[in-house]
Amino acid sequence: MKFFATLLVVFFVSAAVLVSAKSMKKDKDKVGDGSNVATKNCHYEKGPWSECDKTSNLKSRQLTLKKPQAGCEQTKSISKKCKKAKKSCKYEKGTWTECNADKEMIRVDKLKRKDDSCESEKRV
């Protein structure tokens, strides 16, 4: 009899914990975890991207709130990495030297077309 009473208590405690956990989950779904609920309905006008900052390799833009909304920031600034610029530097491959004292071979490639953004020679 004592065994059945203990089993019954364990059953009811487990059921209470389960109901409580489901209730907390529903409340969390309604309220949110606080990270993104307030900004869910915030709509922003996107400004143009800035030029790429060469030191940080980032570009940024300003976002402005379209309509006043409780819990929404009036302006935001976002940034992202710039895409690597495609270099148009084309080189004519030179010939390899004989091995030097350090057992290395060197090749000097020369720029095909003059371009101030490119090195005139490239050592490989």
UniProtKB/TrEMBL annotation:
Q: What is its main location?
A: secreted
Q: Which GO terms describe its molecular function?
A: growth factor activity; heparin binding
Question: What's in the keyword line of the UniProt record?
Answer: Disulfide bond, Secreted, Signal
Where is this protein found?
Answer: Secreted
Q: Name one GO biological process term.
A: mesoderm morphogenesis
- Designated name of the protein: Pleiotrophin/Midkine C-terminal domain-containing protein
**Source organism superkingdom:** Eukaryota
List the Gene3D superfamilies hit by this protein, alphabetically.
Heparin-binding Growth Factor, Midkine, Chain A- C-terminal Domain
Any GO CC annotation of this UniProt entry: extracellular region
InterPro entries named among the record's database cross-references:
PTN/MK_C_dom, PTN/MK_C_dom_sf, PTN/MK_diS_sf
Q: What is the annotated signal peptide range for this record?
A: 1-21
**Pfam family of the protein (one):** PTN_MK_C
Similarity comment: family membership: Belongs to the pleiotrophin family.
Which stretches make up the Pleiotrophin/Midkine C-terminal domain?
40-87
